[in-house]
Amino acid sequence: MKRLLSSLLGTVVLTALMVVNALAAPIPAWDYTVDGIFVSWKTTVGTSGTLDTPAQGITGFEPEELFYNLDGGVPVPPGTSAKGYRHIAWGDYVWSGPGPVYSQIPGANLSSIGINARSGTMITDGPTSLGMELYHYNQRILSGSIQLKSGVVRSVLTLAPSGNPPLPVFSTKLDFLFFETPNGNVNTESDVFVLLNPEVTEETFHFYGVDYVFSFGGSFGLIPETYRALLNLPVGSVGWITSENAYNAFDTLISIRALPTPEPTSIILMGLGLLGLFGLRRRSQA
Fold first, then answer.
1. 192 phi and psi, to 5 degrees?
2. Do residues 82 and 65 make contact, with C-beta atoms less than 8 angstroms apart?
3. What does the DSSP assignment read for 141-187?
4. The pTM is what?
5. pLDDT tens digit string along 221-236?
6. Fewest C-beta atoms under 10 Å: which of 11, 90, 275, 280?
7. From residue 282, how far is each of 8, 14, 141, 205 by CA, in Å?
8. Residue 158: how many CB atoms within 10 A of its CB?
9. What is the percent of the chain with per-residue pLDDT over 90, rounded to a whole number?
10. What does the alpha-carbon distance between residue 212 and residue 151 come to, in Å, rounded to a whole number?
C-alpha cells in the first residue's frame, strides 16, 4: 500500500510540474539593445586584421569590447567578450611591394563601413522593430589602394522583460564578403555585401519555460542576377547593394515570437492516464 501511494504521489507531482511548465506565459514585451562590431577582416592584398593585430591599410574607429552570454535563457553574468571596431575605413594606403611596403596618401578619399547600435522595446508576436544600423560610405578611392575584402561581425542582442535589468540572452555572428566592384559598367558598379551564413537570421532560444524565435528577417535582400554572374555567387545569395558615391544605410529588422507550448489539458489527461496505469498494475498484483 505504501509503495502504491508513493507511486501515485510521484505521478501527481510529475503531472503538476508538467502543467506548471505548460502554463508558462510568454514574455509580452522585451527591452532590447542590438549592437555589433567588426571582429576580424581580410584585405585585397592577402593580409588580415583584428583589434589586437591590425592589418595595414584598414583603419579602425571606436574600439569596443562587447560582452555576451551563449548559455541562453538564464540570468547569469556575461560568459565572454569580443573585441573589435564599430567602424573601419580604407582607401588611403597603397601597396608598393615587395616586402610588402605600404604607402599612405594623406587626404585620400576613404570608403568605410560601420555599425550603429539601436535600443527599443520589442513586442512578442508583434511587428518588426528596428535593430542595429549598418552603413557604407561608398566613395571612389585610389586605384591600387588596399581594400576590404571580407569581414566578420559579432552581433550581440541583449534582451530583458520590459522594466527589468538587461539579460544577455544570446549572441549571433554575421559573416559577410565585401566586393568593391569595377566602375564603368552602370549595371554592376555598386559595391556589394554578401551574407555568408543566412541561417543565423533566425535562431531559437529558451527562456523560463518558453521557446522563442528571434529573427533578422527582412534585413537582407536577394543579390541581383547581374551581380551574381559578375562575382560568381550562387543562386539565393543575400546581402545588400550600395549606391556609388553615396552614403548607404541599412536598418536591420528584428522580431520575436513565442513557440506554442503544450495545452495544459492534454498534460492533465496524460497524468490521469498514468494514474490509471498504476491502478491497473496494483489490481493485477492483488
1. -130, 135
2. yes
3. --TTB--EEEEEEEEEEEEEETTS--EEEEEEEEEEEEE-PPSS-TT
4. 0.73
5. 999 999 999 888 999 9
6. 280
7. 11, 19, 84, 42
8. 23
9. 27
10. 29
